[in-house]
Structure formats: structure tokens, C-alpha cells
Amino acid sequence: MILYNITYTVAHSVEEDFVSWMKDTHIPEVFACGLFTSHKFYRLLNSADDESTNYSIQFFAESTAKLMEYEKLYAQELRIKPQIRFGEKALAFRTLLQEV
């Protein structure tokens, strides 16, 4: 199992909109690609910054091949959407983890 984790640092000024948009629009769009088996959406409780909150969106894939297919066919287009909507108020970094 491969975990594709996207962590966002979200300014408090857009936090409510960010959570709603992720739940209602963006996460369903990513999941609709058909390459992930499940997903989870978390708020980090140990954020040290008073100006922002961190969120983790986790997508689970059966194999690296599925993740590579996502990267090749869908990732570029889908990554632009939160950048356009939130700009510098929601910054992302991505990590890949493999279940051991």
C-alpha cells in the first residue's frame, strides 16, 4: 500500500472555505480518478503557528504504478486548482510513504 500525503499550511482567513472546498470539491475530484482505494482528511493538532493551521489529506493506492499513473495523467491539473483558489494562503507539500 502506498500513501500519498499532501500537507497544507492554511491561513486562518481562508480556513473555513478551504475545509469546505476540499471536502466538497477537491478531494472528490482526486478520488474520482479511480486510482486510489481510500482517503482521509485530518487537521493537525500540534500546529505551532498562530497564523495558520495544518491539514493532511491522505490518498491510499494499491501500488506505485497506480500513483505514477495519477502523476502522469491527473496530478498537474489537479494541483493547480487549490493554488488558483487560495494562492499563498494554502501552501502544500507532498510526501510518499510505503506500508511496511
CATH architecture: 2-Layer Sandwich
What is the rounded Rg? 13 Å
Q: Residue-averaged pLDDT, rounded?
A: 95
Which strand order spans the largest sheet, edge to edge or round the barrel? Answer: 2-3-1-4
For the record, the count of structural domains works out to: 1
| Helix/sheet category | alpha+beta
SSE ordering = EHEEHE
Strand content: 35-45%
What is the count of DSSP helices, taking H or I runs of 4+ residues? Answer: 2
The biggest beta sheet reads: 4 strands, antiparallel
The best one-word shape is globular
- How much helicity do the residues have? 40-55%
Q: How many beta-strand elements?
A: 4
Under CATH at level 1, the class stands as: Alpha Beta
What keyword list fits this structure?
4-stranded antiparallel sheet; 2 helices; alpha+beta; DUF4286 family protein; DUF4286; Alpha-Beta Plaits; 100 residues; 35% strand; globular
Structure report:
With 100 residues, this protein is α+β, with helices and mostly antiparallel strands. It has helices at residues 15-31, 64-86, and strands at 2-11, 38-43, 52-61, 90-98. The chain has one domain (2-98): Alpha-Beta Plaits (2-Layer Sandwich), CATH 3.30.70. It contains two helices and four strands. Helix 1 runs antiparallel to helix 2. The N and C termini lie close together (9 Å). InterPro entries: DUF4286. Pfam families: DUF4286. This is DUF4286 family protein.
